[in-house]
Automatic annotation (TrEMBL):
GO molecular function, one term: protein-folding chaperone binding
Family: Belongs to the prefoldin subunit beta family.
Domain of life, per lineage: Eukaryota
Signal peptide: none
GO cellular component assignments: cytoplasm; prefoldin complex
Protein name: Prefoldin subunit 6
Pfam family, one: Prefoldin_2
Keywords carried by this UniProt record: Chaperone, Coiled coil
Length: 127
């Protein structure tokens, strides 16, 4: 019985850790979505620029003149990177979700076994 209790406790702790990790992964995914939206908006704005327009890049407190092509290229690279990170985050979310579901199922099974043992013990004591 002590072994069952230890397994139940260990599995419950593992499940709680997975839930925290899952929550952090969801927050990360949301942050990536915000970055993606922001960079897509910048890309749309760049598409409307005329060759004569000047682009500036903010570096610390200073605006530095930047070539349009270089700025567009940087945003495109950033978008590719963010999309890659989103795919990675999705895979992590799926993996964590599966692990959490597995741990949850194991907890339910262990609790069922524990209840059955407690009922047997109660029946044996009553007899």
């Amino acid at each position: 019985m002590a072994s069952l209790e230890e397994r139940l406790e260990t599995t419950t702790e593992e499940y709680q850790k997975l839930q925290k990790d899952l929550s952090a992964a969801v927050e990360n995914r949301q942050r990536l979505d915000a970055q993606l939206t922001e960079n897509e908006q910048v890309q749309k704005e760049f598409a409307q620029l005329k060759p004569a327009n000047t682009v500036y890049k903010l570096i610390g407190p200073v605006l530095i003149k930047q070539e349009q092509s270089e700025a567009k290229q940087n945003v495109a690279k950033r978008l590719d990177f963010i999309k890659g990170e989103i795919k990675r985050a999705e895979t992590r979310l799926k993996d964590l979700g599966e692990k959490a579901e597995k741990a949850k199922t194991e907890i339910v099974q262990l609790q069922t076994v524990r209840q059955a043992q407690q009922q047997q013990d109660a029946t044996a004591v009553a007899s």
